[in-house]
Amino acid sequence: MNKFLVILAGLLVLSFAGSVIAADPYPGVDWDALEKEVKGKDIVALTDQFLSEAGNYEGMTQELTAENNELDTRIKQIRKIQDFYKGLYADDERYIGAVPDYDIYVVMPGDWLSKLAEYPEVYGWGNYARWPDIYHANDDLIWDPDLIYPYWELKIPRP
């Protein structure tokens, strides 16, 4: 048992010495504070605590994934209802053109197509890959998708 503790202590010393000698792979981590927090504590207990916390996060991830899937299902249902009503009123002249198929976005300095596709008022976070939709809707204005100018009014197609 003593040999194990000596080896474990040696590994801890080497790992701390190695992190000091080598370039810090985790900039911004206060290693001194972390060492003070860990010093004198049972490593096995800390490992068990970490694993239990990781399990909690894993459970939360599964719950959020299930909730996200449920919301996706609801969105699909709402889109089906929207499509139904669009088809229902498609021939009625009173409703033709009442709702545009696109919104307008004014380009600001520093914008590019994939960046503005992620804006909440455009398509939302994670939808950068929808920039071709914007490009094709504005092909009369945009000649090069890598080159858009501030204060252009771009059409943002709606699904």
Overview of this protein structure:
With 159 residues, this protein is mainly α. It has five helices and two strands; from the N terminus they run αααβααβ. The chain has two domains: 88 residues; 56 residues, LysM domain (Membrane-bound Lytic Murein Transglycosylase D, Chain A, Roll). It has a two-stranded antiparallel sheet with strand order 1-2. The model has no long low-confidence stretch (mean pLDDT 76).
Number of strands: 2
Low-confidence stretches: none
Helical coverage, percent range: 40-55%
Any idea how many domains? 2
Per the principal axes of the C-alpha atoms, what is the gross shape? Answer: elongated
Rg, nearest Å: 28 Å
- Summed over residues and divided by their number, the pLDDT gives a mean of 76
Major sheet details: 2 strands, antiparallel
Helix tally equals 5
Distance between the termini: 66 Å
Percent range for β-strand residues: 5-15%
Helix and strand element order: HHHEHHE
What structural category characterises the helix and strand content? mainly alpha
Quaternary organization: single chain
Please state how the strands of the largest beta sheet are arranged side by side.
Answer: 1-2
Secondary structure blueprint with pairings:
Layout lengths: L1 H20 L9 H8 L4 H47 L12 E5 L6 H5 L13 H7 L15 E5 L2
Antiparallel strand pairs: 1-2
Features:
159 residues; mainly alpha; 5 helices; single chain; Membrane-bound Lytic Murein Transglycosylase D, Chain A
